[in-house]
Amino acid sequence: MEGLAVAAKPMIKVAAVCGSLRKGSYNRGLIRSAIEMCGGNGPVAGMQIELVDIAPLPFLNTDLEVDGGFPAPVDAFRKKILRANAYLFASPEYNYSLSGPLKNAIDWASRAPNCWADKPAAVVSAGGNFGGGRAQYHLRQVGVFLDLHFINKPELFVHAFQPPPKFDSDGNLIDPDTKERLKQVLLSLQAFTLRLQQ
Ligand SMILES: Cc1cc2nc3c(=O)[nH]c(=O)nc-3n(C[C@H](O)[C@H](O)[C@H](O)COP(=O)(O)O)c2cc1C
């Protein structure tokens, strides 16, 4: 309508980090589905999600930091984390906690200057009987020191091994109800990110 300008929402860049290195990972399947929802004709406009691979990162060892510099894969990872406006974590639960590879990645990007500081985040998980819930709550605790701001709701815990099937044999999310709930997580992260940017 003439005279009524509709302000476009700024594009939010989300870095997605998966705690599983497994090829057919269900958690990476959640991230792939989130990427699809935010792309092209997907239902979530205004967000771009990039999966940031943590597999090339060495085990954290501060001896690898030479003259204040980081090994090349760590440096590349830190830059991607720093550039993002928000984060989406998807981690399996390993022995009632977040996965070792995810904690390693988080620790590398936390070395000064802390790349995570003052950014919004969401966490989802797929796993056994609690759907990875205990990993989520440990990650939220780690996020306190990182100065991450997690959205509280909605929560998404995917019980990967309960019927109906949630994933196909390649780890792609196929369950419509889980897709809908994942979409609600993304919309909540988007709204919270925009609020923090005001
Ligand atoms: C070392 C290890 C520990 C695990 N511990 C738990 C656990 O405490 N709780 C749980 O629900 N599942 C546990 N699992 C199962 C994984 O969370 C489950 O297989 C999940 O699907 C793996 O995620 P992914 O499909 O993204 O690789 C464990 C798996 C491994 C390899």
TrEMBL record:
Catalytic activity: a quinone + NADPH + H(+) = a quinol + NADP(+); a quinone + NADH + H(+) = a quinol + NAD(+)
GO cellular component: cytosol
SUPFAM superfamilies the record matches: Flavoproteins
Ranges where the NADPH-dependent FMN reductase-like domain occurs: 12-160
Family stated for the protein in its record: Belongs to the SsuE family.
Subunit structure: Homotetramer.
Keywords: Flavoprotein, FMN, NAD, NADP, Oxidoreductase
Xref: InterPro entries: Flavoprotein-like_sf, FMN_Rdtase-like_dom, NAD(P)H-dep_reductase
Cofactor: FMN
Role this protein plays: The enzyme apparently serves as a quinone reductase in connection with conjugation reactions of hydroquinones involved in detoxification pathways.
Protein name: NAD(P)H dehydrogenase (quinone)
Pfam families linked to this entry: FMN_red
Name of the gene this protein is made from: LOC109709581
Molecular function via GO: FMN binding; NAD(P)H dehydrogenase (quinone) activity
Signal peptide span: none
The species this protein was found in: Ananas comosus (Pineapple)
EC number(s) recorded for this UniProt protein: 1.6.5.2
Enzyme class: oxidoreductase
